[in-house]
Design brief:
Length: about 500
Amino acid sequence: MTVRVLSIAGSDPSGGAGIQADLKTFAAQGTYGMAVIASLTAQNTAGVRGVFSPPASFLAQQLDAISDDIAVDAVKIGMLGSAENIAVVDTWLATHRPPFVVLDPVMVATSGDRLLDENAESALRALLPRADLLTPNVAELAVLVGDEPARDLDGAIAQGKALASSTGAQVLVKGGHLGSAGADGDQLATDALVGPDGSVTLVPGPWVSTTNTHGTGCSLSSALAALRPQRESWAAAAVDAKAWLTGALAGGAALGVGQGRGPVDHLHALFPATFSTQEWSRIAPIRAAIETMPFIVALADGSLPWVNFRFYLAQDAQYLREYARCLARVAALAPDQDAQEFFAHSSAAALEAEMGLHRTLLTAHGESLSGIETSPVTTAYLDHLHRCCATGSYAEAAAAVLPCFWLYQHIGERLGVLQAQRSSADAHPYAAWIETYADPAFAAATTSAIGFADRAFQAGSPAERDAMIAAFERSSRYEWMFFAQGTDLPAWPV
Ligand SMILES: Nc1ncnc2c1ncn2[C@@H]1O[C@H](COP(=O)(O)OP(=O)(O)OP(=O)(O)O)[C@@H](O)[C@H]1O
Ligand SMILES: Cc1ncc(COP(=O)(O)O)c(N)n1
């Protein structure tokens, strides 16, 4: 029979934390997931905007509906929001306690926003002894033992021992925010399972360099609840939950979700990394460099001087003419009609739509595209593309032309979000450029280009796969240099 796991928690509409994360985690562990919503939040990856808790009587009604019908093998309790909700859960546990109870004492989100009424802290403290396992983060652990936040893992373990002994529950001390060093000096993210008898089991894991950490606490506690009925002990469940979470953290960036601290990829093991997800993660430093470079920052806020934008536009027009030839070459190499149509259409679109945009923008300033000299960076990028498309396979050529879709779509989307937040009265000098790349039709074309590259990778020989990886990374670097030449290199005489 499938293991049936219940989450009693808050809702995170952006899908990275709360019950949304819990249900994905339950599915990832092969269990049947259920969710009783204690509280609603309006939040995204950047922070919490509002919290609304329905009447506690409705929480009781939801819990009764489950208990009257379904045997629950394990429960994970997360954000409860209010003292009234905590009282309802306390009563429910007294009468319907499932075999395994994990309690994540959610008080404050990573963003610093409160997720528990201030007057509910003592009620939450009183609920703790009903759990088998508590999963406070460093800040919550400190509040629960009435101490300052620990500065290192040893300090956190000492607090964990105090909490375990006062509640009779096991405590998983999470060292994610503390960091620790392994024998070979590698940075680790070590957790520790502390028993009420003072026993300590270290659960080490590699540190993942990522900003996609929204909902890690929710996901870890859910994985523990889902795995415990399938494992011998909490220690065994913790080791497997930790390994799963490390993979989810590593896959988070490739999801491309949100502008703040993005979510982890709960389903990474069900859908193993493709060429595109792997490469998107691999070029994370290049993406970060593009997102924060002076040219893009000034383009985003509209402060980019026209002289720099004009230089960029002129080079881009040179680039697009040749890029369109490369896309036509990918179409010629395409193994099937869908790919051929897509790349041929993209070639025409590069000439018509994008170059049209450039012409309009220049004409509006009384300038034209004639007599422009191609810069060294533009030349180098085009030489690379022409080489991949002239001498490489379809797979290599499809990988080489992909960053120009994907990085523009990515930057366009980011700038489009900023643009939408701006008051409509503030005219942005480069609004037309942003709209072109933030357009959902361009996002759809990018998704198609990614799909074609992924399929080529699947069908490719080992040599072709290596060539795809090299071509994709090199094109991505050139994309960065291409933007950078607009402000960061000495002016090229035009
Ligand atoms: N960058 C990282 N690399 C590896 N593991 C991490 C990283 N950040 C957090 N973790 C792990 O994620 C789990 C959750 O730990 P964390 O301390 O972030 O909890 P939390 O603060 O409750 O999470 P949340 O961000 O959801 O509030 C722990 O197993 C921790 O070791
Ligand atoms: C509904 C809900 N529950 C829990 C958290 C804590 O997660 P995090 O600290 O990662 O934001 C959250 N943000 N939202």
